[in-house]
Amino acid sequence: MENINESSLSRVWKHFEDKDTTIVILTSFRDEFGYKDNIATNKKFASEIKKAGFGYFYVNGYFPENEGTEDEVNVKEDSIFCIAKGAEGKKLIALCHKLANSRNQDSIIVLKMVQKIN
User: Cα(26)–Cα(72) distance, rounded to whole angstroms?
Assistant: First the structure.
């Protein structure tokens, strides 16, 4: 699969509309690490995703810390939008879980998963 270098809304929407595409979003960002370290680890994640043959591009992500309290704040976390075609979706999800666990992330986001392979 080709590396995706454009993250326009129409490009993102195309992936959502494609019934044969699995979409996963993850990040390596952790509060206890500095911005440069978080960026370096995100690049390492992207390299592993590309090496496995999946497409990706970077997106701006936000995560609510202290959600539901007076101290709630949206924290910027650069994220990776990953895509896989057909049956490869399960492989992408497993890889993203592995990468996220290596950075003690609580979760990844599986926005859409191919349920039926024709």
Answer: 21
Q: Is the dihedral of CA 45, 26, 61, 106 positive or negative?
A: negative
Among residues 54, 38, 58, which one has the least CA distance to residue 96? 54
Specify the residue for token string 């490009």: 11
Cα–Cα distance for residue pair 99/105, rounded to 1 Å: 9
pLDDT tens digits for range 38-97: 999 999 999 999 999 999 999 888 877 788 899 888 888 899 999 999 989 999 999 999
Strands 55-65 and 109-112: unpaired
C-alpha separations of 41 from 29, 78, 87 in Å: 8, 11, 27
Length of the chain: 118
Sign of CA dihedral 53, 104, 28, 84: positive
Residue 2 has a pLDDT of 45
